[in-house]
Amino acid sequence: MSQAHEYAQQHHDRFVEQLQELVRIPSVSTLSQNKPDMAQAANWLAEDMKNIGFDRAEVMPTNGHPVVYGEWKGAGEEAPTVLVYGHYDVQPAEMADGWSHEPFDPHIEDGFLYGRGAMDNKGQLIAQLKAIESLIKTGGSPVNLKVIFEGEEETSSINLPVFVQEHIDMLSADVCVISDTGMREVDQPQMCYSLRGLTYMELHVTGPSHDLHSGSGHTIHNPAQALAEIIAKLHDEDGRITVPGFYDDVAELDAKERALMNEDAPTEEYVIKTTGSPTTWGEPNFTPAERMGARPTLEVNGMVSGFYGEGSKTVIPAKAMAKLSARLVANQKAQRAFEQIRDYIAEITPPSVRSELKLLSKGEPAYTAPDTPSMQAAVRAYEQGWGKAPTFNRGGGSIPIVADFQQMLNVPVVLLGFGVGDGVHGPNERFLLEAFKRGVDTAIYFYEEVGKGL
Ligand SMILES: [Zn+2]
Fold first, then answer.
1. Ligand 1 centroid distance, CA of 151 (Å)
2. Percentage, residues of the chain above pLDDT 70
3. Can you tell me the mean pLDDT for 213-222?
4. Distance 153 CA to ligand 1 centre (A)
5. Does 381 fall in a domain?
6. pTM, whole model, 2 decimals?
7. Scanning 34, 147, 375, 452, which has the fewest C-beta atoms within 10 Å of its C-beta?
């Protein structure tokens, strides 16, 4: 065990105190009233980087909340460089949401640290920063380090892609590591190696120029009904998306990966129990884990048309609208997926109505194969720092910045998650301090493993 690990053990209590200090700053990115708090949190981090001994530590402006950037290049030109990403902004939180203690006055109970941001992402970000401190303070890190903490993750990272594009050289690295994922139980670490992309759309269907008396029904096509007919044609009976070419780019799963991702995955029973749905649904040849992580979706997020107030109103609405979104998997492209859906909807729209599909936002899927050297370095880090090798899963959700880093910086992204707890984005967010401790140690081992060469 190197000195860095001993240092981390000795300073654990102070690390927890510092985490509490950061949680006390209500850095809610979405509320303008918290703008000074955002600046305070950014300054707090830059100040801590300076105390740790970074060569460079500064708060850099964007068109929104600032980015905190730090560098330590003491490992020398031959050594690999690791880029560390985290976010210091948090979701809003107030007592009225159901918190049992003030969300920005953290407290420790039953081994958990409670408070907004305790886990997402301040706890995991501080675990990374304190791992770096432990290395720098005990003779130096075996890898060069670049640290970027953003303040807009909870508001879709709107300005970060531009920032990355403008600082490609500054951010260039051999591997990027992000600690912002979690695991169900502290005794079984999980590594998410794939995230889905997202295409978000609005489908507008129009018919008559104004709402009509339903006495004129069956003389023109009702747009609400036409919308339902279009939506009904987007999947077949087995839950397969019928959009031509939609699966063309979807990477096939081989037997090895299927075994890997189903080893520690939610079962059909688990899905039924946790959702309250009468049964599961979806492509029959794929397990729930495969449908969630390795297959694309096309979902209706909302539908609106006509009259939905109290009582009855006999009306044929002039228009109908649905919010649609597609989660995309490795090798799919968000723009192409949108165009395929748009063209198919144009084709199946009955001539008796008009339709228009609008693109609202898009993000690309991300994937780092579990057998790549940087992922294997992470596996060895968990074995040593956490005490157990991780299982692998594909996430159903999206962190668009992961794909942006992969594409713009051409680096593999390792999701080295330490999250054990709950309440993320909800009341009583909490982070298990044992996971925080193991996280610091695992991160140190990760840098040491990467330092041996990728
Ligand atoms: Zn979050």
1. 11
2. 100
3. 94
4. 7
5. yes
6. 0.87
7. 452
